[in-house]
Amino acid sequence: MARKRKRASAAGRATAFAASSGTLVMAAFALALALTRPETGSATSSDSGPALPPTAFPAAPPRELAAPIAPIAPLPAAPGGHEPGPYPAAEGASGAVAERLPARAVRPAEPAKPPKGGAKLVIVIDDVGHNLHQLEPFLRLPFPVTFSVLPNLPYTAEAARLIRAAGKELMLHQPMEALGDLDEGPGAVYRYMEGPEVAATVLANLAQVPGAVAINNHMGSAATGDGELMRAVAETASGAGVWFLDSLTNGDSVVQSVSLELGIPHLERDVFLDNKPDRASMVEAVEDGARRAARDGRAVMIGHVWSAELADTLMQLYPELVERGFSLSTISRIMMDELDADTGD
Fold this sequence. Notes:
The protein is of the alpha/beta class. About 35% of the residues lie in helices and about 15% in strands. Strands 1, 2, 3, 4, 5, 6, 7, 8 and 9 form a 9-stranded parallel β-sheet that branches.
């Protein structure tokens, strides 16, 4: 038995010596190969893919560096100690707000730049009137914003007052008939209505938002495809001295053809900012608007007051957009500029 243990011990020492010798040989071979290989001057890519290109954007300045604005008084609570909930998110939105992402991680390496004459971005915030707490962060934005207020809601009048007091632009968000079983809300116009009823409805709604400079459609995927209805709406708006912005909820909208037929100026929405409610998607939507503005001279971008991340995202992007040469404008200024261009004034 002792002899067997000695043989086993000797075999183990031999195996260990062979393994150690093999390791030394492999190490020497690797060292020689490294010394003979030419240097490349750069690291190779990992399995995770190439690193993101360096961003072309400077870091956003702290919020306190933004232009000061007048403080807004605390907003009153709704009767009963609560306020109505937010309006439902746009079709296709998940309803969940993703974790905040660094904006620089989603911006293109070569952002759009306007021509030498500049380009204008118009931000419209829809669906105002259900409550006040969602409105407040947008009112604090230190640049031009156009707010579109729904009629016949608990906070329609107070929201319109706060918007005017903040020096922002005001529109009527006119409910219009939608395709399917969607609820357009109170004060809507429908395809079955005759011209006088359409006019009376729109004018009654306009009276709830004194100082409104324009109308845009809330929903309206069915209404904006109907020539007679949109002719009545356009003529009413023109007679009231307000512009019309087509939210383009229907790709087959007849608003443009009707407006041309009547000789009435109008605008169309270029981008929805919050079809997807996460921050990264909103940043990309703003960049889409910037590309369109660089190409066309201006872009109209519509967001919604219930978008939890939108106000903060716009605040972060604003200094960089200005630095790149874009200016923030309003619906009325864009319409006046286009009228001046048409008349040569």
